[in-house]
Every structure is written in structure tokens, then in C-alpha cells.
Amino acid sequence: MPDTPDTVDLTLEELREVTAFATRCAETVLPLYERALPDDPRPREAVEAAGEFAGGAARSKALRTAAWAAYRAALEAPDPVASNAAHAASAACGAAFLHPLAKATQVKHVVGSAAYAALAVELDAGDSGAADAVVARVVGHASPVVVDVLRRFPDAPGGGGRVGGLVRAVDAALRAR
Questions:
Q1: Exposed site from 30, 35, 85, 96, fewest CB < 10 Å?
Q2: 6 inside domain
Q3: Which residue segment(s) compose the domain that 106 sits in?
């Protein structure tokens, strides 16, 4: 379907590329979650499910179930570092469900995993500069396909606290590439 004022044209391969990007972001912070909860496999299973979709598997109920399980892990985590790491894993699965709606809220499907990963690192280090370094790193690793897909959507919306600020930071940095 071609772009219209209300829709964004997305191919399955583009969804896979966006999900691969989100998966790479979440993978970097899995150790932070597993340090706090070594016996809880839910975030890792979500990242693995997202990676499988990115690698060619079907977008399935199992992928959505893994996303919700990681989300529940985030809500149950004993500290904000682990919680944000689990949110990054959940968001990696969520990237596979990027909707072709020309709405700013869809930007979080593209860069949410990066934002949550940056916040987990920031909280772990106790230094906002650590989040800035994560943002710079993920922007450098985003493929041209990810940047192209992101540019089809309006800029990230305001609000959302620190995560929202990091979503906007990643969004702006990717668009500037």
C-alpha cells in the first residue's frame, strides 16, 4: 500500500530490519536484568523471539506473548535498572508490530528498545552521560533502512518522562544522519 496522509508504506523486510535493530539494542542490557534476576528467562526469551522474527520467522502470537511476558517482568523487577532492561526486551518484540499509521506514537516501536536500554545503562552507571553514549552507539549501528522507515513517521511526541526524552533523542539523532 502506498503512503497516504494517514498511512506509511512498510514491507515485511523493513519490519524485520527495524526489529533486528531493536533486538541489538535490547541484547546489550540483558546482563543488567539477569544480574538482578538470573533465574527469570522472560526478557531473554523476548529478545530471542524478536531475533527469530528479524531472521525470517513469522510474526506470531508467540512473539506477542513473549513481549507481554517481558513487560510483566519489567513491572515485577526489583529495581529500575532491571525493569528498564526488561522493557527494552519487550520493546524489541513490539518493533515487529510497528503499525503503518502515520502517527508520532509509532516512533516508539522503532526506537523504544534503544531508549529503554539507554535508561537502564544510565541508572546502572548513575550518570546521564552513560545514556548519551548508548544513544550515540545505537545511532551509529542503525541501518539506512531503519533510518528511512523512521523518517516516514512524524517526529516522536512530547512527554513520557525520561524514557520519552530518550525516545526523542534517538529519534532526532537518527533523523539527522
A1: 35
A2: no
A3: 12-176
Q: Residue 4 pLDDT more than 80? A: no
User: Looking at the predicted structure, is the pLDDT value of residue 156 above 80?
Assistant: yes
Q: What is the mean pLDDT of residues 119-134?
A: 96
The set of cell numbers assigned to 129 is: 552521560
Residue 92 within a domain: yes
| 158: DSSP letter | S
Q: DSSP for 78-137?
A: SSHHHHHHHHHHHHHHHHTT--SB--GGGHHHHHHHHHHHHHHHHHHHT-HHHHHHHHHH
How far is residue 157 from each of residues 46, 83, 120, 154, measured CA to CA in Å? 26, 23, 21, 8
Q: How far apart are CA 143 and CA 124, in angstroms?
A: 27
What is the predicted pLDDT for the residue at 129? 94
Total tally of structural domains belonging to the chain: 1
Whether the predicted pLDDT of 100 surpasses 60: yes
Give yes or no for a contact between 171 and 151, defined as CB atoms under 8 angstroms apart: no
